[in-house]
Amino acid sequence: MKADPTQQQRLLDLQALDTRLGQLDHQLRGLPEHAELETLTARAADLDAEVVRTTTARGDVQRELAKAEQDVQLVRDRAARDQQRLDAGLGSAKDLQAIQHELESLARRQTTLEDEELEVMERAEALDAEVAKAEADRDALAAQIAEVTASRDTKAQALQADRAEVAAGRDAIVADISDELVALYDKIRAQSGTGAAPLQQRRCGGCQLELNQVDLGRIRSAEADEVLRCEECRRILVRTAESGL
Prior knowledge:
Shape: rod-shaped
CATH class of the largest domain: Mainly Alpha
Strand content: 5-15%
Oligomer: single chain
Number of helices: 5
Number of strands: 4
Largest sheet: 4 strands, mixed
Order of helices and strands: HHHHEEHEE
CATH topology of the largest domain: Helix Hairpins
Radius of gyration: 42 Å
Helix content: over 70%
Structural class: mainly alpha
Number of domains: 2
Strand order of the largest sheet: 2-1-4-3
């Protein structure tokens, strides 16, 4: 392949920009906020589940409490009616005695129900506290996620702006190089990570191996516009003033 020496020199500039683009892409992928957000998001899912669990449990206990309160009220109402009948002295002595016995039974029943109601109230209060804590933890985590996300986005935007600038410079260089040479460069770069390397002090700047006398002789005799390849790594070799030829 033939290519103007200036175009071959531009390959080194292109390689430098491609290296920089790779570094920026690596920095974008490696932002610590990515891993932190992944951890926080998993934690958020756990907290959401905890809020659902405690809220559901609280709802169950609140229904249980409502029934307990209703049961106590029913006993109180029954006792109030019996007490009214007893106070009015309506009915036979046997009937009044039966009412008195029922009042005593209702009093015992009311005490039992009120104890059960108190126990349910205590569980309801405990669940209120659990729900409040779960919701507070979830809200605090949401704020932390928002903060980390903002930090990630700020860093990413700066890196993307740098990348856009470097990419624009790359496009400008590519416009100055033949399509055939760029295609060869890109193919090699896809295979080995770098497409072109300078020949400096008789060494390939890609594989860092020193060229033997046969290869050096071939390069010395090559035309200036001939595109050369390293025999070891197959990268495009760009001759420089420090090639040592």
